[in-house]
Specification:
Elements lengths: L12 E7 L3 H15 L2 E7 L1 H9 L6 E5 H9 L9 E6 L1 E6 L10 H10 L3 E4 L6 H13 L2 H5 L2 E4 L7 H6 L5 E5 H5 L5 E6 L8 E7 L6 H11 L2 H9 L6
Parallel strand pairs: 1-2, 1-3, 6-7, 6-8
Antiparallel strand pairs: 3-10, 4-10, 5-8, 5-9
């Protein structure tokens, strides 16, 4: 049986500022929520850090979906209602290649290092304002001692839906891509995902949702947060490449 919130007597538009990593999940879950409640969603996507900065700078919103750390900071700034903060997903960083291309061995940090050096071109999120994965991977390059060696052949995505690293692979602009796994999965089946980074260089990003202290319809926003935390929603989020629970 489909989980239901019940139709609202007052239908509201809920403005969501969300990390791009949650886009494919919200693409599926949004219409379900709209059918069940009568509310409509107006999502805006971007890298978590950029979304959090927009909120910090005073942009109006109803619900935010960003990293747990980012949401905690926004709560401290009085932008998010503390009691509504809810963890909904965890994301790993993965590696992808062009469709049909040989998949490199990335089972260890050293093997991943070899794959980076062998690649003709690499695409990743911009380390500065481009998302959690970009900042982490830049540190990994330094740790593996390849930052200078790969500098000239690395391309950075601009962030947001247009900056999906898989698109670089589809267009033939890179032969190795590194990004959050749900963002790589957004370009399936047009690319091949090799797998997650090995544990010793992996970074788990926790995503949380929270209600704006200035929400136009707090009850509608709370209904969305409750909906995203249901087992049914968790199953969709997991199918889109996230870890839940």
């Amino acid at each position: 049986m489909e989980w239901s919130l019940g139709k609202s007597l007052i239908m509201s538009e809920i403005k969501i500022l969300s990390t791009t990593a949650m886009k494919t999940s919200l693409d599926d879950l949004g219409p379900q929520f709209e059918r069940q409640t009568g509310h409509t969603l107006a999502p805006i996507y971007g890298p978590s850090a950029r979304v959090a900065q927009r909120v910090a700078d005073g942009e109006s919103f109803d619900v935010a979906v960003v990293t747990a750390e980012g949401l905690e900071n926004l709560t401290g700034q009085g932008k998010v209602v503390p009691s509504t903060r809810t963890v909904i997903a965890r994301s790993l960083i993965g590696v992808a290649v062009q469709k049909g291309a040989p998949k490199p061995d990335i089972s260890t940090a050293d093997k991943f290092r070899d794959a980076l050096l062998a690649a003709k071109s690499i695409a990743m999120s911009n380390p500065v304002g481009g998302g959690q994965s970009g900042a982490h991977i830049a540190k990994v390059f330094e740790k593996l001692g390849v930052a200078e060696a790969v500098k000239s052949k690395t391309k950075f995505g601009p962030g947001g839906p247009a900056g999906l690293i898989g698109l670089f692979l589809v267009r033939g602009e890179a032969d190795l891509g590194v990004q959050q796994i749900p963002e790589l999965m957004a370009v399936l089946p047009d690319i091949d995902i090799v797998g997650p980074l090995p544990d010793e260089i992996q970074a788990v990003t926790v995503f949380s949702v929270g209600l704006s202290t200035g929400a136009s319809d707090p009850d509608a926003g709370k209904a969305l947060i409750k909906f995203l935390a249901t087992p049914a929603s968790a199953a969709v989020i997991k199918a889109k490449g996230m870890e839940v629970g």
